[in-house]
Amino acid sequence: MMSDFQHTISKPIEIQGIGVHSGKESYLKLLPAKENHGIVFKRIDLKENNIIAANFDNVIDTTLCTVIGNPYGASVSTVEHLMSALWGCGIDNVIVEVDSAEVPVMDGSSLAFTNLIMECGIKKQNAFRKILKILKPIELMVDDKKIEILPSEDFIIDYTIQFASKAIGVQSFIFKENQTSFKEDISKARTFGFMKDLAALNKIGLGKGVNLSNSIGITDDGILNKEGLRYGDEFVRHKVLDCIGDLYLAGARIKGHVKAFKAGHALNNKLLRKLFANKDAYVFIEERKQFYAA
């Protein structure tokens, strides 16, 4: 059961790796933050106008990853795996310093971030956690893709993917915050891609850091990774990982039931935008505070 109080990390954490799309080295430093600070990115390679709040309204691109930016042109891409790890570890407040425009991909999952945060330690803070409670259903459809969020007393993601590839096919997974282990069941799931698409992606400046140590490579004959899959349904579990990270850009943990079919970064963000455009569909609560005041 997740605590009602806000949390930050106990001490700074340093991380280094390459960006999966830029192919460039990236240095990341997580710093503790005070109560009600939220999650904020800081581009330390820029001298000014370098602060970007981790918020759905700051998402500026969703092509193969989630990119956040500010009005001055500063941006950080591929934030979803780190955001997912922060959610999974129960971190509400943290400063993320990064010296480039992309978060390092590590092994393509959230595992490295999750392990480092847990090893560092988590600090309980003297403020109640804000919860985003869904009151009315919100639904989005684009072609054959669909995502919706329904009222629930728990955070649930019911996700289905469908690919023509024999290596993937149709996969479904149901994540329940109070029943599923984020670290054991979700954090290890790696990003994936089709090798036939890589050259085209490189031409538009994406996928330049892709290799089999940070991605699952898929061909017509199956997967290229000699170690195989970490889960039999690793592909859909990674989509759940992405969804958790994208939805954490709501600025709070959610009480709601998400149902997704062939969704992705774009629909995840559009869902939040539609939700917040409907003021009667949600409410922010501090349950324990309300309980004590009664």
UniProtKB/TrEMBL annotation:
Cite the annotated pathway. Answer: Glycolipid biosynthesis; lipid IV(A) biosynthesis; lipid IV(A) from (3R)-3-hydroxytetradecanoyl-[acyl-carrier-protein] and UDP-N-acetyl-alpha-D-glucosamine: step 2/6
Q: Does the keyword field hold Metal-binding?
A: yes
Molecular function GO terms recorded: metal ion binding; UDP-3-O-acyl-N-acetylglucosamine deacetylase activity
Q: Where is Zn(2+) annotated to bind? A: H81, H238, D242
Catalytic activity reads:
a UDP-3-O-[(3R)-3-hydroxyacyl]-N-acetyl-alpha-D-glucosamine + H2O = a UDP-3-O-[(3R)-3-hydroxyacyl]-alpha-D-glucosamine + acetate
Q: What is its EC number?
A: 3.5.1.108
Which cofactor(s) are needed, names only? Zn(2+)
The reply to whether Phosphoprotein figures as a keyword in the UniProt entry is no
One of the protein's GO biological processes: lipid A biosynthetic process
Which terms in the GO cellular component ontology are assigned? membrane
The highest taxon in the source lineage is: Bacteria
Q: From which residue to which does the signal peptide run?
A: none
> Where are the coiled-coil regions?
none
Report the function annotation for this chain: Catalyzes the hydrolysis of UDP-3-O-myristoyl-N-acetylglucosamine to form UDP-3-O-myristoylglucosamine and acetate, the committed step in lipid A biosynthesis.
Identification of the protein by name? UDP-3-O-acyl-N-acetylglucosamine deacetylase
Q: What organism does the record attribute this protein to?
A: Candidatus Jidaibacter acanthamoebae
